[in-house]
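Notebook, bench 3.
Goal today: get a predicted structure for 4-hydroxy-tetrahydrodipicolinate reductase from Ananas comosus so we can plan the truncation constructs. The sequence was checked against the plasmid map this morning, with no discrepancies at the termini. Length recorded as 264 residues. Pasting the sequence as submitted so the record is complete.
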Amino acid sequence: MGKAVAEAAVSAGLQLVPVTFSSKEKPSRTLQVGSMDMHVHGPSEREYILSSVLDEFPNLVLVDYTVPDAVNDNAELYCKLGVPFVMGTTGGDREMLYKTVQDANVYAVLSPQMGKQVVAFLAAMEIMAEQFPGAFSGYHMEVMESHQAGKLDTSGTAKAVISCFQKLGVSFNLKQIKKIRDPKKQLDMVGVPEEYLSGHAFHLYHLTSPDETVSFEFQHNVCGRSIYAEGTVDAAMFLYKKVQSKADKKIYNMIDVLREGNMR
């Protein structure tokens, strides 16, 4: 995702700062993005390097895509240095994440889903749940989500959609989610194209009425990472404008980005 966002940023005409971080202490390598070499630094260098980058690029907006276990530690560093950031990583202690950002009074876009069209779908679900609570009372629901094997956590998007259905009256436990990470099952059962096994998001929500005479299906399948990368770049541009205008509100999500009209 990091590389995909970097490529999308260059395509959008933004200035890309050639610095990124790795969980490995001595990554000793560079990452090629277009004609630019991105310098990869280990975790022990993070604070020093990021502080130096911030001195050189005071209008920096940082983008974070990492593993769930790193969410809170990363956010604490960004808040300590006062750098505005867009976090597309899911997982971590979300309550603590919001508290950390709020206490530091730092500008941030925090969203478990960066795909603009998927976010619009989520917003529609939230409106339906708010206006028609209990509309699906008694319905049985099955949920399947398939992502690349490297995605360790359960989809934040799936959790958000399920929360809406719970408000609509559906009884469902997150432990009931069918989480598929086996490439063979993804090919044979889910129908993921082989070239996208390393990067996809297939979701299916199937609801059945108590007497099994009525059924509904909500499905969204994403191949590749471009939808998230483009949304992330829009979020970074949105956040930059908020910082420059000294907006009173500091913490945003992707629905805020969409409401601003940033649907390129």
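The domain at 1-114+227-260 is CATH 3.40.50.720 (Rossmann fold). The CA atoms of residues 85 and 108 lie 5 Å apart.
Flagging this for group meeting.
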